[in-house]
Amino acid sequence: MRHRLSFVFALVATLVAAPVTAQLTVEVHGSFGITNVHITGFSGSDVLDSDKATSGAHAQLFFGNAVERAPILGVELGYQYLFFYEFAQGANAIEQGVDAVRAMVVGRVPLGGGEIWAEGAAGAYRVEGSTSAAVGAGVAMTIRVAPTVQIPLRLRTDVVLDSNATIVPVMASMGLSVAIGG
Q1: CB 114 within 8 A of CB 95
Q2: Are the CB atoms for 162 and 169 separated by under 8 Å?
Q3: How many whole angstroms separate alpha carbon 91 and alpha carbon 161?
Q4: What is the pLDDT of residues 113-128, one digit of tens each?
Q5: Which residue, 20, 100, 30, 34, is CA-closest to 64?
Q6: Backbone CA torsion sign across 41, 47, 52, 58
Q7: In the chain, % of residues over pLDDT 70
Q8: Are 37 and 160 in contact (CB under 8 A)?
Q9: Separation of alpha carbons 26 and 6, rounded Å
C-alpha cells in the first residue's frame, strides 16, 4: 500500500511540475443548469409535471497545450441529464427522465491573450435511442494552480436538433485541466 501511495504521489508531482510544452490537455468537468425544451412537443402527450434542471459530467482531450494560450482543438465525451416530465397513461402517472450521452469536436480560442476562452463545439447527442446533431458555444475562464494545472469555469449552451423537439441545455461547469506530454 505504501508503494502505491508513493507511486501516485510521484505521478501527480510529475504531472504538476512538468514543463509547459505539453502536447495534450485533459479536462474533466461537472455541470449544472437548465434545459430549454418544449416538453409536450418532445413527449407527444400532455405533461402533468416537469423539471428542466440539467446536470452532467464530461471529459475533454485537447490536442495542444491549453496553458500556452493558443487556439486548440479537441474531443469531448459526456453524459447529461436533461430534464424530467410526468404524463398520464390511463389512470397512472408515468415519470420519464431524459438523459443523453454526447460526442463533440471542440475548439477553443483565447480572447485577448488572457485567461478567458471562446469555445465552439459540433457533434451529436444520443437522446432516448436516437442520435441528433448538436452544436455548442460558450466562454470559459481558467484559474492556474500550477504550471500545468488549471481550474476551468465555463458557461456553454448546446443546441440539440432532436427529431421530436429542439433541446437547448444551458450549462455552467467547473473542472480540472492538466497539460501532459512534452
Answers
A1: no
A2: no
A3: 33
A4: 668 999 999 999 999 9
A5: 20
A6: negative
A7: 84
A8: no
A9: 23
> Average model confidence (pLDDT) for the chain?
86
69: amino acid identity, one letter: R
Beta carbons within 8 Å of 26's beta carbon, 6+ residues apart: 59, 60, 61, 62, 177, 178, 180
Burial of 78 (0-12, 13-18, 19+ CB in 10 A): buried
- 3-state secondary structure at position 1: coil
Question: In Å, how far are 63, 135, 162 from 75, measured between CA atoms?
Answer: 9, 13, 21
Is 114 in a helix, a strand, or coil?
A: coil
Cell numbers for 151, please give them. 481550474
Do 37 and 76 meet the contact criterion of CB atoms below 8 Å apart?
no
Q: Is 46 helix (H, G, I), strand (E, B) or coil?
A: coil
What DSSP string runs through 83-112?
Answer: EEEEEEETTEEEEEEEEEEEEEEEEEEEET
Contact 179, 24 (CB under 8 A): yes
Helices (H), ranges, the chain: 2-17, 39-43
- The more confident residue out of 8 and 180 is 180
